[in-house]
Design a protein that fits this description.
By secondary structure, the protein is mainly α. It has seven helices and no strands. The chain has a single domain, classed as Ferritin (Up-down Bundle), CATH 1.20.1260.
């Protein structure tokens, strides 16, 4: 009886281990899951190319970060300018995120549903700050983020390999990003 029980336990353990290891491609990171899904679609010939997918995932993840940090700035910032900038981030990036979701749905692109692990860490770190420390870190982060965003969107807008709808989205969004860059640079100069 003991041998049968041990054999059953061993068989169940083996099957459980195999079931767990087959799920290893799924992670808690929504960005990684979106990348994997897009790769699989591309391999099957039902998705978009790497350039299009990578841009869409980065833009969605970055847009969600801008909205989340903008909400935080509206609540935690001490500077009126920083609070107003945060409100602009929430409004403009929510609109852009919605537009990107529509394009992604129409072109079979999977976007992350939540912030990636790295971006969530930024949010968690910012949540620990308050007052002038929050304002200073937020402004610095927004200057850096918008430099990167503008470069990414320009590159995509000029990339002939990118899906035309995604390329158009990048082109149409660039002036808004430049407006954000100009505004955050002005706030940054006032704070120094």
């Amino acid at each position: 009886m003991k041998k049968i029980s041990l054999a059953i336990l061993l068989a169940v353990s083996t099957l459980s281990f195999q079931a767990c290891s087959s799920k290893k491609t799924e992670t808690a990171d929504s960005v990684e899951n979106a990348d994997s899904s897009n790769e699989a679609k591309e391999d099957l010939g039902t998705g978009q190319n790497d350039d299009t997918n990578e841009f869409a995932v980065k833009a969605a993840n970055g847009g969600m970060l801008e909205v989340e940090l903008g909400r935080m700035a509206e609540e935690k910032a001490v500077s009126k300018d920083v609070k107003e900038f945060g409100a602009m981030m929430v409004k403009d990036h929510s609109k852009a995120n919605d537009e990107l979701k529509t394009i992604a749905a129409a072109h079979n692109i999977t976007l992350p549903s939540t912030l990636g692990e790295d971006e969530q860490k930024h949010v968690n770190d910012m949540a620990k700050l308050s007052g002038a420390d929050f304002d200073k870190k937020y402004v610095s982060m927004m200057v850096d983020d918008h430099k990167e965003d503008i470069d990414l969107f320009k590159k995509t807008a000029e990339d002939d390999k990118t899906n035309p709808a995604v390329k158009d989205f990048a082109s149409k969004t660039l002036p808004t990003l430049q407006k954000h860059m100009d505004a955050i640079n002005a706030i940054d100069k006032k704070m120094k």
